[in-house]
Amino acid sequence: MAAADRPTTVARRGGMGARLLWRALLVRRSRVLAAVTAIAVGAAVIAALASLYFDISAKMSRELRAYGANFIVAPASAEGDKTFSEATYRKLIAELPADRLVGASPFLYGVARIGEREAVIAGLDFAGAQKISPYWQVEGNWIGVDFDERRCMLGERLAESLGLHPGDKIEVSNDDGSFTTELTVRGIVETGEAEDDQILVNRSLAQKLLGMPNVVNLAMLSIQAEGEDADRLASTVEADFPGLDIRPIRQVSQSDGELLDKIKVLMAFVAGIILVITAVCVNSTLTAMIVERRREIGLQKALGADDSAIMRQFLIETVTLSLIGVAVGLVIGFGLAQLLGQAVFSTAISFRAIVVPATLAISLIAALAAAIVPIRRAIRIVPAQVLKGE
């Protein structure tokens, strides 16, 4: 063949291939629709689960913070001073990643007197405490501002033993009676923990009652970090504060990480099942299409089409169907991700560009794997047999 004739031959083959592809898509619409639907459903589920997968750590971490603080900060020395300065606490908070810090509160503990009875007093920042302890059950109301030194909150058992209710007034004094203040009970707190026996006041008021200005005993933090990530964060921050012991609350942090891992494994398992179902549907549809086109394939071979040309034709058809199905599936999948995000996390799922190539690659691999057997069947067609009607 002359060199000048080669472009014309290639153009003719390309035009023939395009006509065969167009005919395959239009003539067998029901088969094509079945294949596209199967791929679209698979791609939609993959896109939805992939969107959740790449967004789930942040979303789940925020949800899990509802179960309480996951970091504790205390003086490093087991002996000697049991406090550290407020200035150190503020510096520590400033160094933490702001986008991952859900809430924090320092605590100062001591003993005060309510009338003639002694009780443990806890000074804290109420705004921060409410964020790190949203599971606390409160009868009445939280104290709304951290500078409020006229109100307090009582633990449920302490309030019950004193016969107090929200709105009642009490006198609180230090151990020697040199400082006394009248407080209104703002709310009764039920935690199931030590706070049920304590009186909770603003931290500055606790420092006055206990005679311990500008210091705290410990701090509780709620940070979006789980498992090894929490350990790394604690080690990094602790290196800048050698006088403090900063560590994740192991049970909470480890449980958070294990729960996230299990959810991700479950999502991968569901995605795998959907892919298998999609591949089976595509395989069945392509097999049926090839059975219907046996005479067409036989005629192509009789006219000179070799096995590679037949294989290329069906691969192009498979890829075309896959691209159409994935395009539809991505739109449906992102909508499905939003529904799941609202149902599970009560928030929108962020669009992540990586979902598009990931969904496309996975869907194409599944479709091409499903096409292997039908294409091999097409290649094995013997022109003489099908053209004679055998």
TrEMBL record:
Gene Ontology CC: one annotated term = plasma membrane
Specify the protein's topology with respect to the membrane: Multi-pass membrane protein
Is Transmembrane helix tagged as a keyword? Answer: yes
This entry's Gene Ontology molecular function terms read:
transmembrane transporter activity
Residue span, ABC3 transporter permease C-terminal domain? 269-382
Which keywords appear in this protein's UniProt record, sorted alphabetically? Cell membrane, Membrane, Transmembrane, Transmembrane helix
Q: Subcellular localization, per the record?
A: Cell membrane
Question: What family is this?
Answer: Belongs to the ABC-4 integral membrane protein family.
Q: Where is the MacB-like periplasmic core domain?
A: 34-236
Name of this protein: Putative ABC transport system permease protein
Lineage, uppermost ranks: Bacteria, Pseudomonadati, Pseudomonadota, Alphaproteobacteria, Hyphomicrobiales
For this protein, the record's Pfam families field holds: FtsX (PF02687), MacB_PCD (PF12704)
Q: Which organism is it from?
A: Afifella marina DSM 2698
Which parts of the chain span the membrane according to its record?
A: 32-54, 265-291, 314-337, 349-373
